[in-house]
């Protein structure tokens, strides 16, 4: 099962909204086939694992391991449970159940009704952690939410506005190594979100240009449509969603997705509901402080990744306040990276 999880990680960033499943086929304590979920729309892990077996006549005596319950319904591809039965694989070992109501035990029932020996759960905690984005989407009806920011040693996320007037370029708090790591993270998630002030002051591209992978869908909160048409986020190079309160036709940029939502105390919930309807199962929220704090205050977040840079601003915008326990600290060049879970 650990090998299944290892294989499944190959799908990070390209299988969504499908889960990144890993599968291994074993005969006489030897792996004879393995696979992981193809990019969205392609074959599932079980299909790729079965197709990797040179002699399919061996399958009837083999055991298939899979991180998530095999699907039992027709979607982009046929049901994986049917394929397992087709090749008469007698034993199926499953990491954890699929909460999708289209599956939710139906895959296991189909296998058991056909005479398969189904063993589950196996390494359930590890499999749930591996499938955290997919499971959160179906159990909490929202995307898996990662909060990310960088702060100085004296606790500032941005310099004072006066410094911006002298130098309008972005003020980097972290090293190039940390910034590349952030691009890797962006390539792993479906979407990325910032607020109006961050979009105006930093004019970010929010892409994954220093890492090989897909660019996330860009999401920006722009209550009064203050962003200028020449802003990077409105350049139509990447799919972009703008949440606003008043959709002024004169300020609409062609090709951008606009959605009107209330900018009230339930703003974070409104954003989550919309992203859920759009089938987005994970998002990184990169700032600024007001935007991040909105999700913290609403308790709508799953983990935080906080860089502490080797610098001081002395004055400026204070970093968000987070009280949850740090579960891991890593050194990234001259920076510290704190990982925090919302358990």
Description:
The chain is of the alpha/beta class and 343 residues long. It contains 11 helices and 16 strands. The protein has a 9-stranded mixed sheet with strand order 11-10-9-8-12-6-13-16-15, with helices on both faces. A 5-stranded mixed sheet has the order 2-1-3-4-5. Helix 3 packs parallel to helix 4. The mean pLDDT is 94.
Helices, by number, come to 11
Largest sheet entry? 9 strands, mixed
Give the percentage of residues in beta strands.
25-35%
Supply Rg. Answer: 23 Å
Overview features:
343 residues; nine-stranded mixed beta sheet; 11 helices; alpha/beta; 27% helix; elongated
What's the short version?
The protein has about 350 residues and is α/β, with parallel strands linked by helices. It contains eleven helices and 16 strands.
Helix-strand blueprint:
Layout: H1 2-8, E1 22-27, E2 30-36, H2 45-51, E3 63-68, H3 80-86, E4 91-96, H4 106-113, E5 117-119, H5 124-130, H6 132-140, E6 144-151, E7 156-159, H7 161-166, H8 176-188, E8 191-195, H9 196-202, E9 217-221, E10 240-244, E11 257-260, H10 267-277, E12 282-287, H11 289-297, E13 303-308, E14 316-318, E15 326-332, E16 335-341
Parallel strand pairs: 3-4, 4-5, 6-12, 6-13, 8-9, 8-12, 9-10, 10-11
Antiparallel strand pairs: 1-2, 1-3, 7-14, 13-16, 15-16
Helix pairs in contact: 3-4
């Amino acid at each position: 099962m650990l090998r299944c999880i290892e294989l499944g990680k190959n799908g990070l960033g390209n299988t969504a909204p499908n889960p990144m499943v890993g599968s291994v086929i074993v005969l006489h304590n030897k792996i004879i086939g393995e696979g992981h979920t193809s990019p969205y729309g392609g074959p599932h892990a079980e299909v790729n694992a079965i197709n990797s077996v040179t002699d399919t006549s061996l399958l009837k005596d083999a055991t298939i391991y899979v991180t998530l319950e095999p699907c039992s319904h027709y979607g982009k591809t046929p049901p994986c449970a049917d394929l397992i039965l087709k090749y008469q694989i007698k034993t199926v070992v499953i990491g954890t159940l699929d909460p999708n109501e289209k599956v939710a035990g139906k895959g296991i029932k189909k296998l058991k009704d056909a005479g398969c020996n189904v063993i589950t759960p196996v390494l359930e905690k590890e499999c749930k952690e591996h499938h955290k984005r997919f499971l959160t989407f179906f159990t909490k009806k929202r995307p898996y939410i990662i909060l990310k920011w960088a702060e100085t040693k004296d606790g500032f996320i941005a310099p004072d506005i006066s410094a911006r007037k002298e130098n309008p370029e972005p003020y980097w708090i972290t090293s190039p190594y940390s910034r590349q790591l952030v691009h890797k993270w962006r390539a792993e998630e479906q979407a990325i979100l910032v607020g109006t002030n961050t979009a105006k002051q930093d004019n970010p591209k929010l892409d994954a240009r220093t890492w090989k992978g897909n660019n996330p869908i860009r999401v920006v909160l722009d209550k009064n449509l203050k962003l200028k048409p020449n802003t990077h986020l409105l350049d139509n190079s990447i799919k972009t969603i703008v949440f606003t309160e008043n959709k002024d036709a004169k300020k609409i940029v062609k090709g951008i997705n606009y959605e009107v939502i209330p900018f009230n105390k339930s703003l974070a919930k409104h954003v989550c509901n919309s992203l859920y309807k759009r089938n987005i199962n994970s998002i990184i929220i990169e700032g600024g402080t007001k935007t991040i704090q909105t999700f913290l205050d609403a308790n709508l977040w799953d983990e935080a990744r906080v860089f502490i840079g080797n610098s001081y601003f002395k004055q400026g915008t204070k970093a968000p306040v987070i009280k949850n326990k740090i579960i891991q600290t890593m050194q990234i060049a001259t920076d510290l990276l704190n990982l925090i879970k919302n358990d």
